[in-house]
Amino acid sequence: MNYRMLVLDLDDTLLKDDRTVSEMTRRRLLEAQQQGTVVVLASGRPTYAMQHLAQELCLAQYGGYLISFNGARITACENGAVLSSVDISHAQMCRLFDLAQEQNVYIQTYTEDHILVSKDNEYTQIEKEITGMDVVECADFKAEIPKTAVKAMMLEHPDRLKQVEQALRPVIKDELYMTITKPFFLEFMNPAVDKGKSLVTLAAHLGISMEQVIAVGDSYNDISMIEAAGLGVAMGNAVEAVKQAADYETDDNEHDGVARVVEKFFLNQE
After folding, report:
1. CB 260: neighbour CB atoms within 10 A?
2. Secondary structure of the chain: what % helix, strand, coil (to 5)?
3. Is the predicted pLDDT of residue 131 greater than 90, yes or no?
4. pLDDT digits (tens, 9 = 90+) for 211-237
5. Residues 181, 44: contact at Cβ < 8 Å?
6. Does the first or last residue of the chain, that is N or C, have fewer Cβ atoms within 10 Å of its Cβ?
7. Residue 133 near residue 115, CB atoms below 8 Å
8. Cα(193)–Cα(207) distance, rounded to whole angstroms?
């Protein structure tokens, strides 16, 4: 198969545990792009928090894309054009705030370059460290959040958050898309959003068959794109559900798993 697009999750996939891209992986991705491969970064992160990686990998030069907020935004790196944008309403955000209060967990949402929180907390500080975005604590969360938002996120200790997820599924139903991205992040988005749907949208925009797409990931929010792609790849460190959904398993994120995929399927070095 002549694969034309490579879609990569960031944390625990493209990035090592120290949140950097290894030199070998960076070189392989540049080689693949020089040969015409379209590289797409797909993450739950805000667009703002992905830009430095796009620059490091020269995506603007080679026509790469960002799928951010778990699929709620598709952005062309070359000119910053937003190809797709899907939000949740102010009313939905207010309802999520009320549910968070009932469950006694933290909640946050985003502007383009800030994290808005009802109350600052240790888990939001982790998000700040990951994204580089400043945190704004809202005295009146409902009044101060935007009229529409890309997503909301509830935060707590992983054991408690799993309980919250189970409690809210019959309440949320299909009104919103809900997924755990990191053990302490429970995210809520428009139900039209997931990485797989956005990947299909982008591939169609570029005239690329899904059979020509490889998607690589490690966590639950990657399953939709792994199943949508012609070849779905699980990292060696992926959760079991991702490995079950994938067609192929590579090395883990500390041992250049992404570089191995590029070598095998794009550079034909094996």
Report:
1. 19
2. 45, 25, 35
3. no
4. 999 999 999 889 999 999 999 999 999
5. yes
6. C
7. yes
8. 21
